[in-house]
Amino acid sequence: MDVYEALASGTPFEATAKGVIERRDITDPNRGHRDAVAVVRTSGSTGTPKQTLLTASALSASAQATAERIGGQGQWVLAVGTQYVAGLAVVSRSVHAGTQPVVIDPGFRPDEFIAATRQLKHEFTAVSLVPTQLTRLLEHQDALAALQSYSAILVGGSAIPDSIMQAKQRYDLNLYTTYGMSETCGGCVYNGTPLPGMTVDTVEHNGVQRLRLTGPMVAAGYFDDPQLTATHFHNGSYLTDDYGAVGDVVQVHGRLDDVINTGGIKVSAAKVQQVLQRWVPEAFVTGIDDSHWGQRVCAVITGTTDQHILADTVRQELGAPAVPKTWLRVDALPMLENGKPDRLTLTHWLVKE
């Protein structure tokens, strides 16, 4: 049995990197929920993964709302592992559409992506990618031509570089930036606008506005962790660990643990990273404990742009406290299997600097 068969049949399961594990325990009303169909472990990019309980109704609501927003349903390229919610969501949308996805390895080469695109037979075609995957495809002329053939390209999972948004306009790509997580069956805000049925508001938290998501695609909670469930889930709402603003569009400013308090000044790691990514191919920014500053701003970058240029740009746009005090240049950022930066490894590197 694979993920497609499990979802189609309603068999409770957990998808792992090695295959499907049947999980009848998640439907135990004393330990889980009767209507749970899948358990998805969060990426664990900042620590111990959580076991998120997804219901059949939540996955169906997500698939339906996605189809409504992107203008149709059809055949997908599956380029993210199904042990992660982004990959599971692609399979769920495929089951909902009655189509089979074309599967390629998440670490695909451009020629493999092109070959997968050519296998698509449906009139409406779609793919879900992480920013690193999409950035590398945009650098390849034939892969770019393949991207232009898609009815919808979803990109999310981490910060979206300005270069991707510029490419969307330059090459007329049917691109949707997505925001969401395992707890919302994947993306639930597309191009800054919540999917049909989803609402977003904020809750004040230590001087910043914490984002709260409410809708039918919200998960049932965390398996075997009632305390954490009670902290984040309430009456169909999920209180995220992100902060931002809600106006004409939803703006995600960063993670709560990405607010760096350096010398008494609060600095957004996400905003520093966004500035750097206009100059370098890849960047990672975080705060490291410091006896003098409390925390110091640190950056890992790729590329050859002069560090002084980067520092001056950050200073001009965000102020002197936002300029990284520690810099580390590498050939490529280490990534988790879902395409997100390996925060634990990167932080360890910076601590050693």
Secondary-structure blueprint:
Layout: H1 3-9, E1 13-16, E2 19-22, E3 36-41, E4 51-55, H2 56-70, E5 75-78, H3 85-97, E6 102-103, H4 110-119, E7 125-129, H5 131-138, H6 141-147, E8 152-155, H7 162-170, E9 175-181, E10 186-190, E11 193-194, E12 199-205, E13 208-214, E14 221-222, H8 226-232, E15 233-234, E16 237-246, E17 250-255, E18 259-262, E19 265-268, H9 269-276, E20 283-290, E21 294-301, H10 307-318, E22 326-329, H11 343-352
Parallel strand pairs: 1-3, 5-6, 5-7, 7-8, 8-9, 21-22
Antiparallel strand pairs: 1-2, 3-4, 4-14, 9-10, 10-11, 12-13, 13-16, 15-16, 16-17, 18-19, 20-21
Question: What do you see in this structure?
Answer:
This protein has 353 residues and is of the alpha/beta class. The protein folds into two domains: 3-248, ANL, N-terminal domain (Rossmann fold), CATH 3.40.50; 256-352, ANL, C-terminal domain (GMP Synthetase, Chain A, domain 3). Helices cover 30% and strands 31% of the residues. The chain has eleven helices and 22 strands. A seven-stranded mixed sheet has the order 6-5-7-8-9-10-11, with helices on both faces. The longest helix has 15 residues, at 56-70. The relative contact order is 0.11.
